[in-house]
Amino acid sequence: MIRSFGDKDTDRLWNRERVASIDPPIHRVALRKLRQVGSALTLDDLRIPPGNRREAALRLSRYFGTSAQFWLSLQDQYNLDVEENQIQAELDAIRPLKIA
Question: What is the torsional sign of CA 95, 91, 76, 28?
Answer without folding.
Answer: positive
